Amino acid sequence: MKRGGSDEAKRRAGEAAAEAVADGQVVGLGTGSTAAHAIRALGRAVDAGLDVEGIPTSYQSRELAREVGVPLTTLDDATPDIAIDGADQVADGDLIKGGGAAHAREKLVDAAADRFLVVADESKLADRLSVPVPVEVLPDAREPVAASIRDLGGEPDLRLAERKDGPVVTDNGNLVLDCDFGEIDDPAALAADLSACPGVLEHGLFVDLADAIYVGTDDGATVRE
Ligand code: 5RP
Fold first, then answer.
1. What angle do CA 167, 102, 3 make, to 5 degrees?
2. What residues make up the catalytic site (predicted)?
3. 144 lines ligand 1 (CB under 6 A)
């Protein structure tokens, strides 16, 4: 379910958000190609003397942070001052995330941060949320949760690995149902309904969590507070 604009626009958004990180801060490190630009920019800033620690939201962001030299910590030992993370769709400050199947840890880290900066290119902006909502489910809960999703008016689709030789398995050992609800009238109500389903570990609706949206274009980045 990947969407996206140019890599240049993603880079502009990621690098602009990385500039908001101050010396001594703990940073939540988001997942995906846009957040990766922020992690690389932080790595360069660390090389230049910035003192930061990162809390990764996925195996992928942890590996990249290690590669570019961002020191790491955990939620057991620190609270993020700021988090920088991408999104699959942004509407009225609410988000759908989980295109990289990392939304459970992303929500944990992004919600814990004092400030959560979203990085996105213009293709992610919409008037209303409408792309399928990723729902991470315990493997044994796949069918019961799929039935609950249908009761809520959605159409669940088990996410398959790229080679279609099996399902995507998250960093937490679970499965992902991409759930098409069409245009979502009330994201907060749907988020509450999804959270209430037994067997749902986490869903990709991020309602009222973002503090600023950094929107990249091929020419620069703008910030929407
Ligand atoms: C991963 C995510 C990503 O942040 C989201 O899919 C956006 O990715 P990209 O920046 O590559 O378009 O939610 O679970």
1. 80
2. 106
3. no
